[in-house]
Specification:
The N terminus is likely disordered. Helix content is 62%, strand content 5%. The N and C termini lie far apart (61 Å). It has 2 domains: 392 residues, no CATH class; 134 residues, STAS domain (Transcription Regulator spoIIAA, 2-Layer Sandwich). It is built from 23 helices and 8 strands. By secondary structure, the protein is mostly helical. The strands form 2 sheets. A 6-stranded mixed sheet has the order 4-3-5-6-7-8.
């Protein structure tokens, strides 16, 4: 039995195979299936819209929800991340192919398929060299800001669609400005339908979160559009959609080096967006539900999903924050929702593309608008502000960059700010002086209170790794403590229990400290030094300088040895 259990885990991760689906909780199966049906109903029109952005036929948008979704669901580690067509990668795709072929042509789609395969290759290479650790540089703080920024961007971008007209802009803010300039062109019939959809979703949500209000709005709008011929009254509908399943084949292009050189920059740009956006979304939802995930395993899933996209006549897929939130809102809690959504798309492609053509376009905009609103985490931002004001500004900057510059820039900024926040903590660690508490124990006091553990013995606790950025603080605090000590010190002990690394600059600083203390008649000793730190100090010649006898296992050992020598 233990052998079988071991075989069901991904090597090197400790995560079970099919983690996105298993274990299946019977009580949640029906909820996951309903969430999958809801995802299909909402994401199909959205995917067709992204197909237009990418210059592909609308049917290609539905293909992104077929094979790619299933491949990620069974091979990824995230229980929540939904893959599919995405606005950021669709825009990059269109820009990259705009000078190479005619949009929606066979050649265009062949190049799009090639880009999906090339991006898949980059994702699989990233899996092999294990660069999924980049997801670790996304702190909980910046994830709150990231999803809030995405929510604002999505919600603002859907306002023109709810008003019944198309307004172009380089970003949501410019789009809204253009809306005000053309407000006299609002279609009141479209606006009435979008308001009805919004009320349906909001009211059903107030009654019960388990009621699939968005699904009711979509089905109801299709029925109303068909019965009352809303398209004849000026309401924009999706229109005729061709049916049928995709053909599985390699893109029909001649793989020459000059073509690869032309496509590679676009493929790499999309790879970076997939890597960052998928990692950010997976981490955000894993954090929300206190679950484990492995970005390296997700890279495999994303690579396989894009192989499926490249071989099934569609374009690249990405981890989607909005589609993930669709499932979250509908109550889905595993990748069973994606499999259910793919089954619905499969049925639609075979039998139901005709009813879908009656769907009012504004309903899609209304649904996506509310999804964006739900992504805006005001409560989370307030909690960060009250608990960690400095980190609140990090989250806010991340959100603003997502809104004004785009998702990919926001993700890169989020990673950078996470690193800055971490560096800031290590750059100025809150070190302490350790004193005896009178009950055979010890307790820390601030460095500004230079207590001695025993007359002539001071213990200084450094609370972070020692590296070049904090060596100035290390040297200054040690020398100031030694100079200001009353009575005069004989031993100065550095408690190294919290130190897990000592770089070259820090080792040089420790040698300088040892020399300066020796000139003052003070011996430097160290306590609670881990084995690997001791090896680093041996290599840096500090051990030779202070002597092997200057290392002690515990602070109790230091105190006992000092009293014996005193």
């Amino acid at each position: 039995m233990p052998t079988a259990r071991k075989s069901m885990r991904n090597s090197g991760t400790g995560l079970p195979v099919f983690q996105g689906i298993l274990p299946i909780k019977r009580s949640l199966v029906s909820t996951d299936i309903v969430a999958g049906v809801t995802l299909a109903a909402l994401a199909m029109p959205e995917a067709m819209g992204y197909a237009k952005i990418a210059g592909a036929p609308v049917i290609a948008g539905l293909y992104t929800m077929l094979i790619p979704m299933v491949l990620f669901a069974i091979s990824g580690s995230s229980r929540h991340l939904v893959v599919g067509a995405d606005s950021a990668t669709a825009v990059i795709l269109f820009a990259g192919l705009s000078t190479m072929a005619a949009p929606a042509s066979a050649q265009w789609m062949a190049y799009a398929g090639a880009l999906a395969l090339m991006s898949a290759g980059l994702l699989l290479m990233a899996r092999v060299i294990r660069i999924g650790f980049l997801a670790d540089f996304l702190s909980r703080t910046v994830l709150v800001g990231f999803l809030t920024g995405v929510g604002v961007q999505v919600a603002l971008g859907e306002i023109p669609g709810m008003l019944g007209f198309t307004v172009l802009g380089k970003g949501p803010v410019e789009t809204i400005m253009n809306v005000f300039r053309q407000i006299n062109h609002v279609s009141f019939n479209d606006l009435a339908v979008s308001v009805a959809a919004l009320l349906t979703i909001v009211v059903t949500g107030k009654i019960s979160r388990k009621i699939p209000g968005a699904l009711i709005a979509v089905i109801g709008s299709i029925a109303a559009s068909s019965i009352f011929h809303l398209h004849e009254q000026g309401v924009h509908v999706l229109g005729a959609i061709p049916g049928g399943l995709p053909t599985i084949a390699f893109p029909e292009i001649r793989w020459k080096w000059d073509l690869i050189e032309r496509l590679l920059p676009t493929a790499f740009s999309m790879f970076v967006v997939i890597l960052a956006q998928s990692a950010a979304t997976s981490r955000a939802y894993a954090t929300r539900h206190n679950e484990r995930f492995s970005q390296n395993i997700d890279l495999l899933g994303l690579g396989l999903a894009n192989i499926g996209a490249g071989l099934s006549g569609t374009f690249l897929v990405n981890g989607s924050p909005t589609k993930t939130q669709m499932v979250e809102t509908a109550g889905g809690r595993s990748q069973l929702s994606q499999i259910a959504a793919s089954a619905v798309v499969f049925s639609v492609l075979l039998f139901l593309t005709a009813p879908l053509s009656y769907m009012p376009s504004v309903v899609l905009s209304a649904v996506v608008f509310l999804i964006g609103i739900e992504l805006i985490d005001i409560k989370g931002m307030r909690r960060v502000y009250f608990e960690r004001p400095w980190e609140f500004w990090v989250a806010l900057v991340t959100a603003l960059i997502v809104v004004f510059s785009g998702v990919e820039q926001g993700i890169l900024t989020a990673m950078f700010l996470s690193i800055v926040a971490h560096t800031r903590h290590g750059y100025r660690p809150r070190n302490a002086v350790i004193k005896a508490d009178g009950n055979d124990g010890f307790r820390p006091v601030p460095v500004s209170v230079p207590e001695q553990m025993a007359p002539g013995l001071m213990v200084y606790r450094f609370t972070h790794s020692m590296y070049y950025a904090n060596t100035e603080q290390l040297y200054r605090e040690v020398i100031e403590l030694a100079e200001g000590a009353r009575p005069r010190l004989h031993w100065f002990c550095i408690d190294a229990g919290a130190i897990d690394d000592v770089d070259f600059s820090a080792a040089e600083t420790l040698r300088s400290i040892a020399g300066d203390l020796k000139n003052r008649g003070i011996s430097l000793v160290l306590a609670e030094v881990s084995e690997h730190i001791r090896e680093e100090l041996d290599r840096s010649q500090l051990t030779r300088l202070i002597g092997r006898e200057s290392y002690y296992g515990t602070l109790t050992d230091v105190l006992a040895a000092y009293r014996m020598k005193g």
